Amino acid sequence: MLEQLTYLHGQPAVTGVLKAAPSDFVVIEDLGFEPCGEGEHIFVRVRKTGENTAWVAGLLADAAGVNRNAVTWAGLKDRHAVTEQWFGIHLPGKAEPDLSVIESDSIQILEAKRHNRKLRTGYLKGNRFTLRLTGLSGSEGLEARLQAVAEQGVPNYYGEQRFGRGGNNLEAAKAMFGGKRIKDRNKRSLYLSAARSMLFNTAVTARIEQGLAHTLLAGDCLMLKGSHSIFSEPEVTPELAARLASGDVQLTAPLWGRGRLASQHEAAAFEEAALSELAEWREGLEKAGMDQERRPLLLRPEAMSWQLEGDTLTLAFFLPAGAFATSVVRELIDAREADHHGEAHAHSGE
Question: Which of 23, 202, 220, 335 would you label with 255, given CA atoms 20 to 30 Å apart?
């Protein structure tokens, strides 16, 4: 899927390996708040190595003596990684369970604290990543590319993981839009997300291909930094251009759904044209009840730092919730993921 998408900084020449070992991909989740200490829910921070998020959730449910659907998480995390993430267990009126029974060499309970609200998907500020890219074929041009990514960002593409192995989530979405009934709500949600993400990636790559990644079009829908509120201005003004250059506002692309595009005039026409050949996908999302939303066009890694030693690049950065670390890596090196018995996994960017 991603091979067909345009690079912001040109296709990288350096090759390497991502996730040769779980310790090469470290993710630390940041909720953006502290559990308050009281309420019906227990928030549990877990460090896991080489373990699947849903599997750990099941272990927590068994340990707490609750149904599996009483355990939630803010975001899926890659199995082939070392991750620190939060789980929520709904335990109204029950004593604190002994969760230490699930601990092992690959699972550690870091803390557990009560909270008065359910932990929902996306209920987090973001993730701190520390990645090791090994077996680099060289380093020519890599330092300049790292600087460019730190300053200008990367396309905010949804990663391969969103689309399933071999794009099978998109195939399932297409069948669903063609009339196939999907009873499982989680699967239905997964397929809708894949379809929506594919349309977003298509709109973003069209914009970058035209050299418009940093250029305002009349009627562009802009997102305010911090508040994430959106607005559209019918005309391009020097003030608006200055705000874009300073990072006060960001360009956005559509997450397709019902209703009018939030962009207008030239920008809306551009987005309509970019997605003109995907009418059945657009209609499918509208009929499924999805509403128009927006997502930033570019992704700028925060607090980015790196160290290059021999054939190994160690890279650290923070990404907001919903962003994909693989989209950052993609602009830096042509990375091959180490083969882990051909398994497909959810990504830690969610």
Answer: 335
- Which overall architecture, per CATH, does domain 33-123 show? 2-Layer Sandwich (3.30)
Q: Which of 24, 30, 62, 78 is catalytic?
A: 78
At residue 185, the pLDDT reads: 85
CATH number 3.30.2340.10 given to 158-296 = yes
311 in active site? no
Q: What is the pLDDT of residue 346?
A: 35
Inter-residue long-range contacts of 207-215, CB under 8 Å, 24+ positions, other chains counted: 207/251, 207/253, 207/270, 207/274, 207/297, 208/6, 208/7, 208/8, 208/155, 209/6, 210/270, 212/270, 213/8, 213/155, 213/251, 213/297, 213/298, 214/152, 214/244, 214/245, 214/251
- Helix ranges, the chain (H): 53-64, 142-152, 168-177, 185-209, 238-246, 265-274, 279-287, 325-332
- Which residues, given as ranges, of the chain have pLDDT below 50? 341-350
Residues found in the chain: 350
Predicted structure pTM score: 0.90
Structure-token match 């928030």, residue found? 43
- Residue 267 near residue 234 (C-beta atoms within 8 A): no
